[in-house]
TrEMBL record:
Segments of skewed composition (Low complexity): 19-33
Name the UniProt record assigns to this protein: N-acetylmuramic acid 6-phosphate etherase
Any one GO molecular function term: lyase activity
EC number in record: 4.2.1.126
Location of the region described as Disordered in the Swiss-Prot/TrEMBL record: 1-37
Length: 350
């Protein structure tokens, strides 16, 4: 479950809006005829909007040729992300510290960037058993913007502020503004509003020297270069944003004890596939027989992490729950506090 703006109005995928770089829609002193020219000049300075004359005949290529071109373009994205790993890691450590105190992780963006944030947030409850309100996705224009362009929403910093106010933002929360251009008013406005209220702020953009990063406490600029289709930032820029958001949520959850080794021990078994995965995770972590796994899961109401502790520490369900509570949900720490491993138990994660 995610929270999204209930106002109407986003854009086509991360298309920069007609406004100043301050992140607010300001039309004072600018005529209706001048604004498009000003915006055009601004777009021409953005790497993500650059025209590539060598690709002007791409539509004349055979399909396989275009596919090879796109694949080659995509292969450069991981390297661009790699250049920003120190900044990404610093932001993640700060996010994890806030979330350990009970804060939330909130993504804010418009168009493609907003959809990617909502996607990442929506996958955290089944993957890491987070509360639905613990990782939140805000998209300019509300739920309808996930499937349909809502014109004008990305232009409003005030809309972003209202969406954050509706969540009762606190100083323990983190707001990650996501925008390929790095100048989308909704994303910049969200970060500026959150920072003014003492929240941790992160700006994720795909242009250097962006207003979004300037407004944020932590800046991550993954410059992937011009797109195959001029200005279509759902391509390389969108891929880069997805990779970084994967890192932010996944590594934060690892830091919070949501995993044991590389096993998703907080997975929520909400369907048959996840129930089967739960049993497999317990088996991989403990090496226990199927019958013992079933008994441990039954004793812990299906909680994977608790069942692993029951088997590895040879304790009952309530004791496992208490040990995990005392260890703030970290399974490794709970194991060190337990009386000792049960006979024949095997820690498959080392």
């Amino acid at each position: 479950m995610t929270h999204m703006s209930e106002f109407s109005a986003p854009e086509a995928p991360d298309t920069p809006a007609a406004s100043g770089t301050s992140g607010t829609s300001d039309t004072s002193g600018t005529s209706d005829t001048l604004r498009p020219r000003t915006l055009r000049a601004e777009l021409e300075t953005l790497t993500t909007e650059a025209f590539r004359p060598e690709l002007a005949d791409v539509d004349r290529l055979p399909t396989l040729g275009i596919a090879r071109l796109m694949n080659g373009e995509d292969a450069t994205v991981a390297a661009a992300v790699a250049e920003r790993l120190p900044a990404i890691a610093a932001a993640i450590d700060a996010v994890a510290e806030r979330m350990a105190r009970g804060g939330r992780l909130i993504y804010a963006g418009a168009g493609t960037a907003g959809r990617l944030g909502v996607l990442d947030a929506s996958e955290c409850p089944p993957t890491f058993n987070t509360d639905p309100g613990q990782v939140v996705g805000l998209i300019a224009g509300g739920p309808g913007a996930l499937v349909t362009s809502v014109e004008g929403a990305e232009d409003s910093a005030e809309l972003a502020a209202a969406d954050l106010d509706a969540l009762a933002l606190t100083a323990d929360d983190t707001v990650v503004g996501v925008s390929a251009s790095g100048r989308t008013p909704y994303a910049v406005g969200a970060v500026a509003h959150a920072r003014a209220r003492g929240a941790l702020t992160v700006g994720l953009a795909c242009n250097a020297g962006s207003p979004l990063v300037a407004a944020a406490g932590h800046g991550i600029e993954v410059v992937v270069g011009p797109e195959l289709l001029t200005g279509s930032t759902r391509l390389k820029a969108g891929t880069a944003q997805k990779l970084v958001l994967n890192m932010i949520s996944t590594i934060t959850m690892i830091r919070l004890g949501k995993t044991y080794g590389n096993l998703m021990v907080d997975v929520r078994a909400s369907n048959e596939k996840l129930r089967a995965r739960s049993r497999r995770i317990v088996a991989l972590a403990t090496g226990a027989a199927d019958a013992d796994i079933e008994r441990a899961l039954a004793a812990t109401d299906g909680e994977v992490k608790n069942a692993i502790l029951v088997l590895l520490a040879d304790v009952d369900g309530p004791t496992a729950a208490r040990l995990l509570t005392d260890s703030h949900g970290h399974l490794r720490a709970a194991l060190t506090k337990a009386p000792g491993p049960g006979p024949g138990a095997q820690d498959a994660t080392g």
